[in-house]
Design brief:
Elements lengths: L2 H11 L3 E6 L12 E6 L7 E10 L2 H8 L14 E9 L11 E4 L2 E2 L5 H4 L10 E2 L14 E5 L3 E3 L6 H21 L7 E4 L5 H12 L3 E6 L2 H10 L3 E4 L5 H8 L5 E6 L6 H6 L1 E9 L12 H6 L3 E4 L5 H12 L7 E6 L4 H9 L5 E5 L4
Parallel strand pairs: 10-11, 10-13, 11-12, 13-14, 14-15, 16-17
Antiparallel strand pairs: 1-2, 3-4, 3-8, 3-17, 4-5, 5-9, 6-7
Helix pairs in contact: 4-5, 4-10
Pfam families: ADH_N (PF08240), ADH_zinc_N (PF00107)
EC number: 1.1.1.1
GO molecular function, one term: alcohol dehydrogenase (NAD+) activity
Length: 366
């Protein structure tokens, strides 16, 4: 490591105060409650590392936290589950991570000792918390410095930038878990990626193409539809139009699809189920348009379909995604990078859904 880098790390370690995006109450308007505040730099525990945050990405759960629904979260709160940066301090029991390592966060906090964790299903741990969403008070990624257990950071290859790592980490890991771990996609299958213009959908399209699948993507407007094609989708339809599901069926010559990648929810779920082939699989990780959907149960038993749920993923899955990013086979797509002083606008852009790719903020640059 160069002398200048060592000097900067020493300076960072001696910091006593930092800037953080804090909210102390809930509101439907992020601009009413999120403030950049001066707070103490966190003190790490023996199994933790202290991270200088260079890039942090937004997720929909950041909005849920600000809104205070669908679940309650600790207040005062710092959101942010996806960060990339440099380790500037390590606890006494940390053995694999060193000061100066470039890392990205794995935000799935689990006990690591229960049956689910030790059988490779840490995403099913009953004690699981999503860091930056359910954690606190004042423990998340939208800050100049943050801390995580050693087991919750992944080293970055030099070829992967902080921005690219932050942008792909949560959505890439979750999409990998949905398609590879849960749905078990195979080459040659037809995969329907709902919401292809979202961060999740962008990752899903690329992973499905990595496995040589035929990909049908959906998006909500012409601009996003065109970008899905450029990203690698073979076909695209507008899921906001009446009869969108009939267009999907026409694309498949009325055969239906093998796998559906779902995170939209109520407005599309019944039609999605009807698109599955015999023995097909729908894997869901969200319901941004509502939870109380209905399905025709005859599809379930007559077609022998599989309805699967998925939440986040494993650290190993994140490492797989970062490896593919380093090879240029999966690419981060970034819509906007905001200075930290204006970071609340990222929440507003998320709520408006007028994005193609991820929104980032840069806590070290005000």
């Amino acid at each position: 490591m160069q002398t200048s880098s060592l000097s900067q790390l020493a300076t960072d370690r001696n910091k006593k105060n930092m800037k953080a995006a804090v909210y102390r109450s809930h509101s439907k308007d992020p601009r009413q409650v999120v403030r950049i505040e001066d707070i103490d730099v966190p003190k790490i525990k023996s199994h933790e590392v202290l991270i200088k945050v260079d890039a942090a990405a937004y997720n929909y759960n950041d909005l849920w936290g600000i809104w205070g629904e669908p679940i309650k979260i600790p207040l005062p709160h710092i959101s942010g589950s996806d960060v990339a940066g440099t380790v500037i301090e390590v606890g006494d029991d940390v053995s694999k991570i060193r000061v100066g390592d470039r890392i990205v966060s794995h935000p799935n906090l689990t006990c690591r000792v229960c049956y689910q964790c030790t059988s490779g299903r840490e995403y099913d741990c009953s004690d699981r918390l999503v860091w930056g969403f359910q954690t606190g008070p004042l423990w998340g990624g939208f800050a100049q410095y943050t801390h995580l257990p050693e087991v919750n950071v992944v080293k970055l290859p030099d070829s992967v930038s902080f921005n690219d790592a932050a942008a792909i980490s949560m959505v890439g890991m979750t999409a990998w878990h949905m398609l590879v771990t849960r749905a078990g996609i195979r080459p040659g299958q037809t995969v329907l990626i709902m919401g292809g213009g979202s961060g999740m959908g962008i990752a899903g399209i690329q992973i499905a193409k990595l496995f040589n699948c035929d990909v049908i993507a959906t998006a909500g407007n012409k601009e996003k539809m065109d970008k899905c094609i450029k990203l690698g989708a073979d076909y695209v339809v507008n899921h906001r139009e009446d009869g969108w599901h009939r267009k999907v069926r026409e694309i498949t010559n009325k055969l239906g699809v093998d796998v559906i990648f779902e995170h939209i929810g109520k407005t599309v779920f019944p039609q999605e189920v009807g698109l599955l082939k015999m023995g097909g699989t729908l894997v869901s990780t969200g319901a941004t348009t509502g939870y109380d959907s209905t399905i025709d149960l005859r599809y379930l038993f007559f077609r022998g379909i599989n309805l699967l749920g998925a939440t986040q993923g494993t650290k190993a899955g994140l490492e797989e995604v970062i490896s593919w990013v380093s090879k240029g086979k999966i690419k981060s797509v970034i819509d906007t990078v905001l200075p930290f002083s204006n970071m609340v606008e990222g929440h507003v852009k998320m709520a408006d859904s007028q994005l193609f790719g991820k929104v980032l903020t840069t806590p070290q640059r005000l």
